[in-house]
Design a protein that fits this description.
single chain, 476 residues, 17 strands, 26% helix, 21% strand
């Protein structure tokens, strides 16, 4: 039987997972073969890449000594997913075999957390950092911040290839005997006590959004540089050949997702489900079984989403022991947008507007920005990187209610000065527009860019930089 390694998240310690180790021991796994990783996450000078590099040294030594099996399983929580993914991406880039078979992620912060901005703030330093020289892990939190350049870099190392690149990655060589099998289990129950309630957000477990946890990311480029009226949309190839199982559980928050041994008062009939899913993932032995699990976990996620239909259904399900609102169970998506010009320079001052294609009135735009677009985060490292949090449930139920068939996004950017503009050298208000979603995507197979629920999308936008006529001319 494979050894199992467990990695904690930001501001946590390996000791916190002794309960999980004991649970595994009670379910057929040898406790002496379960190893609790421990890494620095609260010192400002330590980056995710540093932890991944040191992790490799330790794992190599343990395998060489026979302490850790040649192939082992890996369970991670929250930020531990970034550490593990970085380590595996490094191995693949070096042409080395990744010695992991089952990669089980519990509420992984694969694509950031809104909490990271709080952790970097003075409030975070005075609370979390009070016993650590007021340090909260500046570098680690920069990686965790929504839409961080680091997340773009890592996603393009292990999940998404740029067009024309080799599309292999640490998750690509999967068959019945080798390759990494990733799994994601995440809750969508908000914190119900203490100061943690301040950071609650619909569609999340209180710390990590479901759409930020799902490892099934997509990416595409929208290029306005050659023809602003008809931009070229190019999908990015996936480095992962199969969809990874995603189970969204309504009864678990960010902390409870790590306690399969505990029986809570919420949803008693389903309280054992976390235990069953974790063991199911760790006992998966074939690619056929992996695909079956993917479908079964999708059904669980779909069942969770039905709770958004009414408060009455929620009360019946939870037995009035908790009082979540229907919006908590909406399905969301993230758009991680990065804008650059056709020289490759990042563009920081731009505006995105969502509406019906070629909208003649502002009704659809108002509906989208009021009811569907929940949050926009401008990354603190560079404002060219932004994360848009979109309520997919409201997109389908509210925006499309008036028989609007498609959704378009337009982009405009402030001119750099008197001499350089974007899109059109004659006007400051020029913009580009492209359709990115349809109410019935099956009827629009020709639509290259689509928005998927419970998912993060990496969207590179290229806009044309236009010098005015007098930037260069010949004397008369």
């Amino acid at each position: 039987m494979n050894s199992i390694a467990i990695l904690h998240g930001w501001s946590d310690k390996g000791d916190s997972f002794k309960h999980l180790r004991d649970f595994l021991g009670q379910n057929g796994f040898a406790v002496q073969d379960v190893f609790l990783g421990n890494y620095i996450s609260m010192d400002d000078d330590v980056r995710v890449e540093d932890v991944a590099k040191r992790m490799d040294v330790v794992i190599q030594a343990m395998i060489a000594a026979g302490t850790l099996s040649q192939t082992f399983d890996l369970i991670v929580h929250s930020t531990g997913a970034l550490v593990a993914r970085q380590w595996m991406a490094n191995l693949h880039a070096a042409g080395r075999t990744v010695p992991v078979r089952r990669f089980v992620m519990l509420a992984p912060a694969n694509f950031g957390s809104r909490l990271a901005a709080v952790g970097k703030s003075m409030i975070g330093r005075l609370t979390k950092g009070l016993g650590n020289r007021l340090e909260t892990g500046e570098e680690m939190l920069r990686a965790l911040e929504l839409a961080s350049p680091y997340q773009w870099k890592l996603a393009q190392q292990d999940l998404l290839a740029r067009p024309g690149e080799d599309a292999s990655g640490p998750f690509s060589a999967i068959d019945d005997t080798k390759g990494v099998l990733p799994f994601v289990i995440v809750g969508t129950r908000a914190y119900d006590s203490g100061l943690q309630q301040i950071i609650n957000e619909a569609g999340s477990d209180g710390t990590v959004r479901v759409s930020a946890a799902d490892i099934n990311a997509t990416g595409f480029t929208i290029d306005f540089s050659k023809n602003s009226a008809d931009p070229q949309v190019t999908l990015w190839p996936l480095r992962k050949p199969y969809a990874a199982p995603l189970a969204v559980l309504p009864e678990r928050d960010h902390t409870e997702i790590t306690h399969p041994e505990q029986s809570g008062e919420i949803l008693p009939p389903k309280d054992a489900r976390l235990r069953e899913l974790l063991l199911q993932a760790l006992r998966c032995v074939s690619l056929a079984e992996y695909k079956t699990i993917t479908d079964a976990w999708q059904a669980i996620s779909d069942e969770t989403a039905t709770l958004a239909q009414s408060q009455e259904l929620i009360d019946q399900t939870f037995g009035n022991l908790d009082d979540p609102k229907p919006k908590q169970f909406h399905r969301y998506l993230q758009l991680n947008v990065m804008v650059r010009d056709d020289y490759g320079n990042l563009v920081s001052d731009y505006f995105l507007e969502f509406a019906e294609p070629d909208a003649k009135n502002r009704k659809g735009m108002i509906t989208f920005h009021r009811d569907v677009l929940e949050h926009v985060h401008v990354n603190s490292i560079h404002p060219a990187y932004r994360c848009l949090y979109i309520d997919h449930t409201d997109l389908m139920d509210i925006f499309y209610r008036n028989n609007t068939a498609e959704l378009a996004v337009s982009i405009s950017a402030a001119p750099l000065g008197r001499n350089i503009k974007y899109f059109d050298s004659k006007t400051d208000s020029a913009k580009g527009e492209v359709n990115i979603h349809a109410q019935d995507v099956n009827a629009r197979a020709d639509l290259p860019a689509r928005l998927h629920r419970n998912r993060t999308h990496f969207v590179e936008v290229i806009i044309p930089r236009r010098p005015i006529d007098k930037v260069f001319s010949f004397l008369p």
